[in-house]
Amino acid sequence: MAKALDFTPREPTPQERLHSTVEDSTAALEEGLYVLRQLHEHGVLDVLGKTVRGGEGLTASLLHILGGESGTTLLRNVTELGKTLSTLDPHEVGILGSAVTTGVHEGRGTSPPARASAWASCWAC
């Protein structure tokens, strides 16, 4: 009779894991790069970088962005976002936030932190 072989597959190297992940996420990576290019072309990345570094040249960058074609679009989008946010019920946003947090933690197989429910109840105030 044949004897069973003890076989333990080797762990993939970090490079192999990265390659596999990139292959599985090609469409998402392409979309992400497209968004990143758009943010760069419109100067948003420059403004964010200056904000993180402490605001050196931030005002000039903001004025440059707002003075261009994308500035009009940006102001319209901010106005629409403000209108949308003003129509939301804070209590329901809290419930939604709590549900999203719970769902994320269930997907990970962990329990949500205690502050997640405190954060959600804060919206009800």
How would you portray this structure in words?
- The protein contains seven helices and no strands.
- The protein has 125 residues and is an all-alpha fold.
- It starts with 13 loop residues before the first helix and ends with a helix.
- 1% of the residues are buried.
Give a count of the beta strands, DSSP E runs of length 2 or more. 0
H-E order: HHHHHHH
What is the share of helical residues? over 70%
In round numbers, the mean pLDDT is: 80
Unreliable residue runs = none
Short précis:
The chain contains seven helices and no strands. By secondary structure, the chain is mostly helical.
Layout: helices, strands, pairs:
Blueprint: H1 14-24, H2 26-41, H3 44-52, H4 58-67, H5 69-87, H6 90-108, H7 114-123
Main attributes of the structure:
mainly alpha, 7 helices
